[in-house]
Structure prediction request, 356 residues.
Amino acid sequence: MSLETIQGSLKKRGVRVTRQRQILLDLLDQSGQHLDAEGLFQLAKERDPKLNRVTVYRTLKLLKQGGLVDELDLMHFTGDQHFYDTRLKQEHAHVICLRCGKVEEFFGEPLQQLRKRIETHFGFQVVLARTEVGGFCSHCQVLRQQERDAARQRQIEAAAAATNSRSNNVRARARRAG
Amino acid sequence: MSLETIQGSLKKRGVRVTRQRQILLDLLDQSGQHLDAEGLFQLAKERDPKLNRVTVYRTLKLLKQGGLVDELDLMHFTGDQHFYDTRLKQEHAHVICLRCGKVEEFFGEPLQQLRKRIETHFGFQVVLARTEVGGFCSHCQVLRQQERDAARQRQIEAAAAATNSRSNNVRARARRAG
DNA sequence: GTTAGTGCAAACCTTTTGCAGCTCT
DNA sequence: AGAGCTGCAAAAGGTTTGCACTAAC
Prediction:
């Protein structure tokens, strides 16, 4: 699937591919990232400073309705906005690290298998599927362990300090009592 | 897993299980539906008219952070609010009909398989996974076909009417021309 | 020349925050 | 007493809508 396919699909529906929509489609296609409405708007403004935020929302809605983009939430890691993926790639799951926010994409047949199973199990006609997985990437697993170790260390030191201060108090009382 | 497990988990974290929270937990547990904050609030109001909407949001946030409920979007079929599922059942996918809004739950190993594959593929530690599938339930597939047939029929009739009116015009012109 | 699309401002809906008072322990 | 929790009001964040003007077919 290509950008031209998307544009063709729009024209077929009597939707006009205006200058603004062209800009937004290009950005969605090029930018490797997962953009939300605001991010897309910021990039679009660089190409056309007059382009309005509302146009971005309207275009995204249009593309979503036409099944040309997928709407993601990325586990609400950054907030409650929606992110968008053109459907130019194969179906994939999004894997979000809950510590650093990195997003990986997982392709592979377990996804197709799941889809097929749901279709046969319910006699359901699947139109779109979305899998989002939250957890910790290999890098952050290590960092979390270090953080936990450091926290435990601080606790031990705090406990030791408390003990010292208690015994100091005892000594001080003993002195006052003479 | 049971409601008591959830309550225990909260207490262990130094979280108080107050009257309000008890009400909300009961409702989440009992109601078979997928409730959103507003729906939960409406039900809670019946048991305690003083209970505030904000308390609902705060409790849901707490439960989410503790990993005691899953947050769903149900493909934004009804809007952008979030829905909540206690994690008392086995992991499952949500299957949403885009015509009637019915939500089915799919259990079964393709889900576990997908999770395992992602863990091994990325060395990722999965904490929570969410699969939402949109499409048409078997019932609505039939209805959609009927709707399409009816639309085609109307088109044919409209075309026929247009032809009639054109030939009527021709006849009228002929009459006027005498 | 019609129909669709745009920009602007204002509204909307869901969710969060600040704060004073209340409640468990 | 002290930490945690609640209600209220107000704000925030993201998204949609009404309307007059403009651009594409």
